[in-house]
Amino acid sequence: MTKSDFAVIGQPLPKVDAWAKVVGETKYADDLFLPRMVYGKLHRSSHAHARIRSIDTARARAVPGVYAVITGADLPRVKFGILPVSQDEEALCTEKVRMVGDAVAAVAAVDEETAEQACRLIEVDYEPLPALMSVFDALAHPEVRIHEYGDGPNVHKSVALQFGDVDTALTGADLVREDVFFFEGSNHLPMEQHAAVAHWGSDGKLTLWSSTQTPHYVHRLLAKVLDTPAAHIRVIATPVGGGFGGKTEPFAHEIVACQLSKLTGRPVKIALTREEVFYTHRGRHPVLMWIKTGFTKQGDITGCHLRTWLDGGAYGSYGVASTFYTGVINPVTYKMPVYKFEAARIFTNKPPCGPKRGHGTPQPRFALECQLDKAAEQLGLDPAEMRRRIVAEPFTKTANHLTITTIGLGECIDKVVEASGWREKRARFGGTAARAAVSGGSREGGAGCTPVVQPEPPSPKKPGIGIACSAYLTGAGTAIYWNDMPHSGVITRADRSGGVAVLCGATDIGQGSDSVLAYLTAEVLGIEPKDVHVHPADTSLTPVDLGSYSSRVTLMCGMAAIQAAERLRAVIFQAVAQRLEVSPTSLVARERKVGVPDDWDRAVPFAQAVELGEAIHGVLAFPGSYAPPKRAGKYKGGGVGPSPCYSYSACVVELTVDEETGQVDLGNVWIAHDVGRALNPLLVEGQVEGSVYMGIGEALMEEQVFRKNLHKQPSMLEYKSPTTLETPEIHTILVETDDPEGPFGAKEAGQGPLLPVIPAIANAIYHALAIRIDEVPITPDKILKALELKRLGKPARVGPVKLPLFTFKEPIVVESAFGQPADAVVKRPFAS
Amino acid sequence: MKVRVTLTVNGESREALVPVHKTLLEVLREDLGLTGTKHGCELGECGTCTVLLDGEPVLSCLALPVETEGCRITTVEGMAEGGRLHPLQQAFAELGAAQCGYCTPGILLTATALLADRPSPTRQEVKVALAGNLCRCTGYTKILDAVELAALRMGRQEART
Questions:
Q1: Shortest CA gap A81–chain B (Å)
Q2: Count of CB pairs separated by less than 8 Å, A with B
Q3: Of A87, A184, A154, nearest to A347 (Cα)?
C-alpha cells in the first residue's frame, strides 16, 4: 500500500495518552493510594558476599506503627528467575547474600519513615565470604563459588558456535585485524523508581499494581514464589515511567509487597529509592571483547571470530539470552560468509546485569564498527563507502541461520552521508591538520596572511566526523519459556455507541504501544483513534502479551490488533452488505462510515453498522493472535537471534575534541533508520532521538562501577547522564522498506538506533585526533592519556590489553547458511 | 513533631497537619492528593519534582512546607485554566514531547517560568533553562521543539490581545 491509501497510518498524531500525561493525571504505581494502605521497606545486605548466620527482627517488631516484619523464612522456599534455566533468586535471601543490596528482611509500617526506622533495627549476623568483583577475580578464584550451578566455577553460561570454516577464511584474507574492546556497564536510569502496590483481598485473591514491563512474566512467577494459584492472582502494569529493560523481570519488592499484604490484611506499597534502583539494576553488561576479522583489499569481510566475556553480576537474570546476544546479531548487517562466536557470562558479587536498550548487542556492535573503521583506514577506503559495499542482501540468510527480510541499510548510509556533508567534512576535519597540531606542528598559514596580523592561537578543539551502522531485532522470535501459544493477543470489542475497546496485555512504557493499538484498529475499521479505547496490561482482563522487551510490541501486538479488527470488520461488512444489498467485498470502512465507494451517500454510520452486525452475530468481540514465524536455527542455541525482521540504522556524528581538556563536544548527529514503515513518524522520531541520546550517555559518561564492593555513584548527581546541554542536535531520517512481516510494513524503532551512535562517536574522535579509545565510556581522562601516549611516540590507544585466561568449550560446528535465500513460504502460526 | 501548614496551591488555600520535616513534595503528593508532581531522586538532582514558588522553579523534594507558607505554589495540575490547556501542555502533547511522561510535569513548570521571563527564548536559552531537568526518553529534541512552538503561539496570542 502507498501512504495515500492510509487514513491514520503515517500521520504525526499525538499519542492517545499524551493529554493525561501533560496535565499530571496519569497514575504511575507510586501515585496509587488505597484505603488502609501501609508502606513496605526492604532491609538490604551491606555485604557483597556472606553467609547469613541469623536474623534478629525483635527490635524492628517492637517499633510502634510496625504491622509486620518478615524474612525469607516467611516465604515459600522456592527460588525464581526470569529465565527457566536460571532460577537462582530469592526475594529475601535465606542462606547467603551475593551482593550489597540483596534483600534479607522486610517491614510493613504505617508510613515509610517508620518502616525505614524499623528496617535499620533488623540485625543480621553475617559470615563474610570473599567478594569477587570482576570477571578476572571470579575466574581466578574457582574455590569461591557464588552459585553452585552453571557451566563451571562462577561461569553462568558458556557458548561456542561456529558457522563455516573461519580459520580458512581468515587465512585467505588480504588483511586480518585482531582487536580488543571493553564496554562498561550502565544503568537504565528510568526517571521513575520501581514501585508496586499489592492487595491480597479477603477473598484470597491477590492484585499487584506494578511499574513493570512484563506483567505476564510477573504473574507466572508470583504464582510460583507465593505458592498461590495463578488463577487467583491479577497483575496490572501501571503506566511505566521509563523502562529501557530495567523493569522486565519480577523483583524482590513486588514479591515482598504481596506477602506483607497477605500478612497485614492491608494494601502494601513499596517504592524503591534511587539508590535501590541502582542496586536492583539488570542494566547493561560490562563486556570484554576480542574480535578477529578478515578483509579483502576491497573491504569485503571474509570471516569473523568474536569472543566476549560478560560480567554478569550476582544472578542469572536474562543473562543466558544476553550472552547469546553479544554474538548473534552482528552477522545481520554486513555480508559475513563465515562466523565463529564464543562467549562466557561470569558471576560476580555485583548487582545483576540484564537487558538494557539493545540487550547485549551494543557491545559487540561497538567492537565490530570500530574495527571496521580501523580496517578501512588500513585499506585506504572511505569507511562509509566500505560499509555501503558490504551491506547484507535482502531476503537471505546469515551465516548463523538468521533470516533477513527487507534491509534498508544501504539507503540509510546514503542518506546520512548526504545529509551530514560527510565527504567534504571527512576531508576537511581531522586528518593531517589535527595530527600536526597534536605533534606540535605549525598551523597552516594562508597565502593572504600578512606578518602584521598576529594569527589567533590554534583552537584546542579539533573537529572530527565518524560513521557506524547497526541492526536490531523486531521482537524475539521465541518466548522465554517454550510454548506454542501466541506471543501477543488482542480482543477487540465494538459497542453500539460506535466505540471500540481494544484489550491487550501490552505495556506502555512511553514508547506508545497504547497509541499504536489505537491507530491500527482505527485504520482497519475506518474510525478515528479517539474512538478506540485501549485497555492494556491487566492479566485478568487482557489476553497475554509477553511484554515490552526486544522491540516486539508494535510488530506482535500490532499484527494481533490488525487481525482482531479485520475479523470485526468482516462481520460488520456482512451485516451492512445485507442492508445495502451489495457484496461485502464492495465495501470499505472510512470516515466513520461503511459503504460502497461509488455510492457513498448510502454509507452507514459506523455506530449503526455495529448495531447491524450485533443483530446478526451477537456480541461483537473478536480475538487476534500473533506468534512469529518459526525460524529458529536447527542447532542448540538457534532460538536466540531469530526475529520476524530486523531494523537497520546508520549514524554520522560530528564533534570536536578539546586536546587540552579531553572534553568531547558533540555538534550534530545524523541518523537514518529503516523502520519498515513509520506508523506514526512523530513517535518513531521520538524513539530514534531517545535512542541516540541514550547511546551518547553510554559513549561518553555513564558507568555502573564499584569501589570497595559498593556502587561508586548510586545517585543521579554522581552517575553522569546527558542533560539538554550535552545532547546535540539530532537529525533523524526515516527510511521505509515496507517489510512483509510487520503491521502495515513496520519494523522496530526503540532500540536499534542506539547501537551505531557509540562507535560513530569513537570513530569521530579518532578522526579528530588520531587516537583510539577502545572502551566506553570515552571520558576526558582516557583521551588525555591517549594524547600523552601519542606525544611519547607510543601507540595512541587506550583500551583493554588483558584477556581472561579462559578455555571455551568445543564449538558446535554448523554449516554457514550465508547467502541462502529466505524461505519462500513463511509459516506464521495463528495467521488467518 | 507535626505542624499545621496553610499552603496556597494552584490558587486554592489548603491546610495540612504534617511532620515538620516532611518535604513539600511529599505533602503535595500524600497529603493534598496532587500526584502530578513526581519524584526521581528525592535529593535535588533530577528536576522531576519541580514546582513553581511565586513563579520560580523550585525542587519540591528539597523544600519544606513551612518555608512555602504565603507563597503561590503551582503544580502541573494548576497549569490549565479551567478546561483550557496551557500552550506548553498543548504543544507537549501535539509534538510527542512526553514519552513515558514522568519528567513532563517538572519540565512543563520549568518551561513555564522560562517563558514568563523570556517570551521568545533561543534554543540555547531553552536548553540552559531545562538543563536541571533530566529526561531519559526523548533525547530532549521534541521537548525543545515543543517549548519553541508554545513560545511562538503564546507570542501570537499576546500580539492579538
A1: 27
A2: 175
A3: A154
